[in-house]
Structure prediction request, 254 residues.
Amino acid sequence: MPGRCQQNPVLAGSAALAALGALVLYLAEPSGYGKYSAGAVPAGAHLPARAAWFLQELPSFAVPVGILAGQPSALPGPPATVLLGLFCAHYFHRTFVYSLYTRGRPFPVVFLIRAFVFCMGNGLLQGYYLIYCAEYPADWFTDIRFSLGIFLFILGMGINIHSDYILRRLRKPGEVIYRIPQGGLFTYVSGANFLGEIIEWSGYALASWSLPGLAFAFFSLCFLGLRAFHHHRFYLKMFEDYPNSRKALIPFIF
Ligand code: NDX
Prediction:
């Protein structure tokens, strides 16, 4: 339904998302949840990880689905429908599967509120763009950008889910201690789950060939790349026997 597209909010939203990624790099501080939550906020202002991840990620799934449900007419064109389906599949898993199985430590409420706003904004930007603005040529399904992008998205999602599964199995229910992750891409990097997610959103950016997609891939690279670096530093400090050939984010390189 490109006729109903307002370009300015899409441009502004994409610019804001990319600017937030740049701000993350500029501040270069660990985000104060998980390994870095101790002392970050007043004691007590936390929610169990399962509830926190469910609540904060829900808008990324519910907002695009809500926009689509409010449409008077049918779905957008086929490529945009596929991309929207992949975006929603990712956030369906993050909201209804990842959240409900996580064994993470309690999550600071102040960061939950910020994450909720972030997910609402990003869900609105990606959903609005794909439903109202995206226009693709008839042969987009056979275009190398689409095929390679979808391949990367699925590969990245597989790596991300598998790596998060490895992390979850490092703890028994109720534990909040840290152990050295082993296996999968953790053999090569400390941020295997983050590498998967970065590959995933890079594939989405390529397949959607869109400014909102590019802005989200850039944000993910900044936020998760920095978090991988902080986790790597955390492990090197914490474990004397940490594998010294392991890199932070990119196997054999960085
Ligand atoms: N959620 C994206 N910044 C974030 C929520 C927090 O989806 O104000 C970004 C997302 C938000 C953030 C979001 C945006 C920026 C915010 C931030 C809060 C403050 C910040 C709003 C929205 C902000 C400024 C100032 C710039 C505006 O106890 P624990 O939790 O450490 O346990 C962990 C466990 N684990 C281990 N267990 C045993 N032994 C070990 N060695 C372990 N290592 C880890 O595994 C967790 O239970 C679990 C995973 O932990 P971790 O730290 O590896 O991943 P995590 O960061 O929790 O992410 C979980 C998944 C992962 O797949 C990741 O790829 C994905 O979510 N994710 C996360 C963040 C953003 C994002 C994806 C994206 O940008 N695409």
In short: The mean pLDDT is 95. The first helix runs from residue 7 to 27. The CA atoms of residues 123 and 231 lie 27 Å apart. The chain has one domain: 2-238.
